[in-house]
């Protein structure tokens, strides 16, 4: 039997997108999954939509925060509830190609890999393809990952059976990057599947667009969570600014 994959999906005011996100999971050619959706006190009707899907498919599991926890706290609650061998991530406005789980889990099993990622493409808020696809290395280690983060959150999968459950630091921006570094400390190496298997919705009002807050959070990631020196932390932040400013993670297709 296929190993269980736990899909971690935080929900916050995503009424406009959550149907497409859930449908992309239901369309998967890999069937042994559970989709753990944790609502972080949404003010729209997204939770009603999820409840309707939950009635139709028991693999969809909904939990509700009593108070707003933010992205990291909400994902951590979902990870805590997860039962799968594999932990995968899909935000409530992003999409997976139908063969995403099948191709990626097969890839991980064939290489005996405990941490992997794939390519993804960028779409607009309305779902229009922007003809941009991510560039990824075939392999990553902790040292390389410190410099830049080419791993799209919607593509990452780690083996919780091998590595144990690994949680996100409680920071506002760059939580996924901080998590990948924690995973890499145990996995030692991550492998990239060079196939476009997901669609990332690019939203102009994203929290990560706040440059000052982003730099402060990056500083915390390097200094507090990864014990990097002041000098190295400055260098790594500079690498990340250049990487983001010139959009070096994406290429035209």
Can you characterise this structure?
By secondary structure, the protein is α/β, with parallel strands linked by helices. Helices cover 39% and strands 25% of the residues. Strands 1, 2, 3, 4, 5, 6, 7, 8, 9, 10 and 11 form an 11-stranded mixed sheet that branches. Helix 2 links the parallel strand 2 and strand 3. The termini are far apart. The model has no long low-confidence stretch (mean pLDDT 95).
Summarize the helices and strands and which ones pair or pack:
Elements (H helix, E strand, L loop, with lengths): L4 E7 L6 H9 L6 E7 L6 H11 L3 E5 L5 H12 L4 E4 L5 E2 L3 H12 L3 E9 L5 E6 L4 E3 H6 L9 E3 H4 L11 H13 L1 E13 L9 H15 L4 H16 L4 E3 L1
Parallel strand pairs: 1-2, 1-4, 2-3, 6-10
Antiparallel strand pairs: 4-9, 5-10, 6-7, 6-9, 7-11, 8-10
Helix pairs in contact: 8-9
